[in-house]
Write a structure and sequence with these properties.
6-stranded mixed beta sheet; alpha/beta; globular; 4-stranded antiparallel beta sheet
């Protein structure tokens, strides 16, 4: 297995080559090929069922590709040891989790297991992250009683405490009010780390993404800048709206029936 000591710097932190994934003969991801440069913020765009979450599951290794290959830091994704991979790649997912019996502070500390850091460093990481999501004063509360938005903030705190080389965010604005959407994504963007995030909200994606991959019906339709990817023709075909993307915002005229 590959360990941290064997890694050398790579221009592209992730590379996908003709990646496909299917369940029961149904394709969820087809023929995806693109590179993610180190330090870039890449948006995965597309309507519900386009394949964005399925593609992210392949990247954080919950699922294995049915075809094609993925490399991370210049090495095959499957060659990484579990601990080394978890230290370098952090995720925030859409799904709620069962956290009953754990305190808010314990949930964040559990995310630091791959680092094996000293207790003093662990304490500082946990405190800094919980202060950022405004949960530090509640750190001894049972995490199982958090609302959906509070739990999302807690999972942001977990990945921020880890501060991995790659942030994988599946609908990061899910359950969050506008204040925390902007506060947390601004903070992650300022770190300069590599981020891959799926978005439904095109205007929010425009605030953060350097480039985007547009997906539709499991296929990669286009990749490049948002202005390039979100042409009027693609907005009509993929999102089914008569719209125009300009000046980092989308103007919608009407749905296309």
């Amino acid at each position: 297995m590959l360990h941290k000591a064997n890694i050398t710097a790579a221009t592209n932190v992730l590379s996908l080559n003709r990646v496909g994934f299917e369940i029961g003969g149904k394709p969820l991801v087809e023929e995806c090929t693109f590179d993610v440069p180190t330090g870039s913020f890449l948006g995965l765009l597309g309507p519900n069922g386009a394949g964005k979450s399925s593609l992210l599951r392949l990247l954080y290794r919950e699922k294995k590709p049915s075809s094609g290959s993925i490399s991370a830091f210049g090495a095959p994704l499957e060659s990484w040891s579990r601990r080394a991979f978890a230290a370098k790649v952090g995720t925030v997912l859409q799904e709620k989790a069962q956290l009953a019996g754990l305190t808010i502070e314990q949930v964040v500390a559990l995310g630091l297991f791959p680092l094996n850091c000293p207790k003093s460093d662990e304490r500082k990481r946990v405190q800094d992250a919980l202060e950022l999501v405004e949960l530090w004063d509640r750190r001894e509360e049972n995490a199982g009683y958090l609302s959906g938005g509070e739990q999302q903030r807690l999972f942001f705190a977990q990945v921020l405490a880890l501060d991995p080389d790659i942030y994988l965010l599946d609908e990061p604005n899910n359950h969050l009010d506008i204040y925390f959407q902007i506060r947390l994504l601004d903070h992650i963007k300022a770190k300069g780390k590599t981020v891959i995030a799926s978005f439904h909200d095109i205007n929010l994606a425009a605030r953060y993404c350097d480039n985007a991959v547009l997906m539709h019906e499991a296929k990669m339709v286009a990749t490049g800048s948002l202005a390039t990817v979100l042409s009027p023709e693609r907005l009509e075909r993929v999102y089914r709206v008569n719209a125009r993307f300009a000046d980092s915002a989308i103007a919608i005229n009407a749905p296309v029936v």
